[in-house]
Specification:
InterPro entries: CT398_CC_hairpin, Oxidative_Scav/Glycosyltrans, Zf-RING_7. 77% of the residues lie in helices and 2% in strands. It is an all-alpha fold and 244 residues long. The chain folds into 2 domains: 79 residues, no CATH class; 142 residues, Helix Hairpins (Orthogonal Bundle). Helix 1 packs antiparallel against helix 3. The protein is rod-shaped, with a radius of gyration of 42 Å.
């Protein structure tokens, strides 16, 4: 294939733009903000799990308080009934039995109240634990939001750079013969780099040094010949600085 040397040099500019576009895509995939988001998301899940566990424990303690309060209420109702029976009974035997039961109920009431006080203290401590867990969740979610905002800002900058590069590429490719451009695109899709600057006997695409035979062949090629690297297949663009 033949192509005007100026068009070939323009192709090298396209290759430089494509390299920058590749770097932009690489940065987009490897943004440090993405790892920050991943870490923040894991932290949010961990803190949310801890909050759920803390709330479950608090609910269990509240249920225990409710149960004890209900039992105390039952004991007090029984005591009230016994008092009424004691006031109305004329049987000494029944009175003795009621007094014994009242004594038992009083001990039961005291034990229940002690248990309830202990559980209520644990509930109060657990409420503090729930508050701490909620604050930890809030802090983790705030960090996640900050990380996502930082990612969005970084992506916006990359998208802006990409748009500029794409506009520059479109302008450059409009000055290159379609046949040469098609060849460049095929090589780029297959090999990753479609063209490179030949300098110091090295291909600018793969950075490998050409052997003597390859260099001799390049020297003998006409200025408008499209020469390619035997190693990577890329178009080697020759300039006055190529040292041929």
């Amino acid at each position: 294939m033949k192509a005007d040397p100026a068009a070939q040099r323009r192709l090298l500019e396209v290759a430089n733009v494509d390299s920058e576009l590749n770097r932009i895509n690489h940065r987009r995939r490897t943004l440090p903000e993405l790892e920050r988001i991943g870490a923040a998301e894991r932290e949010v899940r961990t803190k949310q799990d801890a909050l759920v566990a803390a709330r479950t424990t608090l609910d269990d303690l509240q249920n225990e308080v409710d149960r004890l309060e209900n039992e105390v209420e039952q004991v007090r109702s029984r005591q009230q009934r016994d008092r009424q029976l004691m006031d109305s009974t004329e049987s000494s035997k029944q009175l003795e039995d009621l007094q014994h039961e009242m004594s038992t109920l009083s001990r039961r009431e005291a034990a229940l109240e002690d248990d309830m006080l202990e559980v209520m203290e644990r509930r109060e401590a657990q409420e503090t634990e729930v508050s701490h867990a909620q604050r930890a969740v809030d802090a983790a979610e705030s960090e996640l939001e900050d990380a996502r905002n930082a990612r969005d800002e970084a992506l916006a900058d990359l998208e802006s750079d990409e748009a500029k590069r794409l506009a520059e590429r479109e302008s450059l490719t409009g000055e290159i013969p379609q046949q040469l451009l098609d060849l460049y695109e095929r090589i780029r899709q297959q090999r990753g780099a479609g063209a490179g600057y030949l300098q110091g006997g090295r291909c600018g695409a793969c950075r490998l040094e050409l052997d003597r035979a390859a260099l001799a062949s390049v020297r003998e090629a006409a200025a408008d010949d499209v020469v390619r690297c035997e190693e990577c297949g890329a178009i080697m663009v020759r300039t006055k600085e190529s040292g041929l």
